[in-house]
Amino acid sequence: MNISYNEKNRVFKLDTVHSSYCIGIVDDENFVGHIYYGRKLAEDNLAYLMRTEEAPFVPSKNNRDRAAFLDTFPMEYTGNGLGDYREGSLEIRTMSGHSGVALSYVSHRIYDGKDPLEGLPATFGDAKACKTLELTCEDRILGLQVILSYSIFADSDALARSVKIVNNGQEPVYLTKVMSVCIDMDNDGYEMITLHGSWGRERAIQTRPVMKGKQSVSSIRGESSHQEHPFMAWKKRTTTEETGDIYAMNFVYSGNFLAQIEENQFGSIRAMMGIHPYDFCWKLESGDSFQAPEVVCVYSAEGIGGMTRTFHDLYRNHLIRGEYKDKKRPILINNWEATYFDFDTEKLLNIARQASELGIEMLVMDDGWFGRRNDDNSSLGDWQVNEDKLKGGLKYLVDEVNKLGMKFGIWFEPEMISPDSDLYREHPDWAIAIPGRTGTLTRNQYVLDLSRKEVRDFVYEMFADILRSANIEYVKWDMNRQLSDIGSYGLPADRQGELFHRQVLAVYEMQDRMTKEFPHLLLENCSGGGARFDPGMLYYSPQIWCSDDTDGVERLSIQAGTAMVYPLSTMGAHVSDCPNHAIGRVTPFETRGYVALAGTFGYELDVTKIPEEDRKMIPEQTAMYHKYNDLVRCGDYYRIAHYADNHYFDCYEVVAKDKSEALVTYIQVLNRPNFHSRRICIPGLDPQGCYVIENAQDWPELKQTEYMGDTLHYAGINIPPLWGDFKGRLMHLKKK
Ligand code: DGJ
Questions:
Q1: DSSP of 670-694, one letter per residue?
Q2: Which residues' Cβ are closer than 6 Å to ligand 1?
Q3: What is the per-residue pLDDT across 158-204, written as a single tens digit (0 to 9) for each?
Q4: φ and ψ at residue 631, rounded to 5 degrees
Q5: CA–centroid distance, residue 529 to ligand 1 (Å)
Q6: What number of other Cβ atoms are within 10 A of residue 416's Cβ?
Q7: Is the pLDDT of residue 62 over 70?
Q8: Closest Cα to residue 534, out of 512, 504, 554?
Q9: Is the overall model pTM greater than 0.90, yes or no?
Q10: Which protein residue's CA is at the shortest distance from atom 11 of ligand 1?
């Protein structure tokens, strides 16, 4: 890891273990240009790549074609309105109503470590683990300073970028767009990978060619969303899982975002990511600063898999925090699909009694324990225990669960308010709303205006009191609607455009406060399933509920898309009952267990009601979780085959960092008649190592149980056809 500045050539070079990123300062006007991002280079004399000798690239010598220069030059971070017609990174409006802004280099600072971003989640590392370059640029006319930050890590090929704007001018200025990152490069026949979905089918992987014009994914829903994801990658057409160039960006933020690639008239692309400019307008008073959230950029020459593993390691080592960061999570049973709103103390205790005998370690009480909430039409905001349901109170229930040797967890939805709640009756102006308009309801609820300190303090105290009242060791923090009707009774007219972002900052502040007051708590974020599965939330909670669709087959696709970026240790995954509540499919209990093992693992069913043969399998499954979870949580993940591509089977693997063992999950989604075995290649092993199938009894068809690592990787193994659909098996390989 090194950051250097070649003063003669005016070139900055950031070197990670395998990549280099180069920035150049050119011309008398000190334009900051992007030179190179890719494989690691020894050379730092790269100024020749800036094309400054090519017409029309010399503005100070040839100002008549200034616009052509600005419209072509590979900007490191752009201004607006002065001749670059590609999408800009920074847009403003001055008090006189003008929008022009131009940036040039002023100074830089290189330091060991990485400063936190005020009020925002961000990757971290100490002076030994990180180095940071801060480039200070300025628009002298406006007195606007733009500080571009670049941090690299000793143990990673990631680059964390962020931007801070400081108003040194005399007057306020409105920021109407602040991207966090911009990278210009030539299009080398790239394809773009993005993640798409909906409720119940989050983060399906999509690949499309990068073409002329703009292609983007975004959210203007106030959360990172079910529909599109704050991640994009672009790769060469020839790049595979294991080889070839790929670049990626992932936004450490949980609200509106825009991720876009634009190819211009000359075949260059501009990739950018940041807060979506939709309804964003931040008033920056003279002397104030605005910190834009961080984007993590990754370059890998080792294909899509290399990119994935870089993200996984970075997030496990430099983003996720807290007591459970590196720890096995308790196997939980959640009563949502078991009872929905229809439960009481006795029902929950019956579930807990059975569950504790089967090896389940924590009971989570989901939605419906407070106010008068017997369905989803009321009581959000009234965080007082409903003692008609919980006879004897919450503490009694928690104590009884603890007596069974189990932990206890609870569900909250702190960001919401039901119109039918005491809180709303008392404070109707605490909901986000546009005065004079009837508010848009979703699931019969409004969003609380958390930009107001008195609102977030009040709500925090209410739920913190519940947490203080009993031995609660886990919280599921849910958020079941998107934002609309953007209006705050607490903000002046010229700050209404800050509400979307202030709301996200408020959620971060509340979660920060909660994790500080309750440092031993295991927090799982959730948003109507997986609508807020993003690195921002991972900074506060080591796990996030992946999706409300717990079907074993649907989950293969949801988890493959999620694991494209996020470690398996973060993916909330449960075994649920059949027919599945989201899709009506019936799959074997065994297969549901194998699929959930790739995440945090738990149950979402009434263990007192499921078929006896399923119940009998639970002790085996919980034992498997204990046996494999260290490997799954800490190992290297490889995608081998995906049924969304081939329609028949799914296969993925986790290899221990020291290559001493690997766990291969094979799921035959659909059987085929009259079909022979399937050749599966198993990557990531020690090529010279001899591996034994440790669970050979599960593979009676295989005559041979010992293989060399390189043989398994390049020649593979023949997986026999399994009888029936939705069948699965695990293969545990151990190095001799
Ligand atoms: C959505 C979550 O994803 C579910 O697991 C459950 O907690 C419900 N909300 C409760 O309302």
A1: S--TT---EEE---SS-TT-EEEET
A2: 336, 366-367, 411, 478, 480, 526, 528-529, 545, 548
A3: 999 999 999 999 999 999 999 999 999 999 999 999 999 999 999 99
A4: -65, -50
A5: 7
A6: 22
A7: no
A8: 504
A9: yes
A10: 367
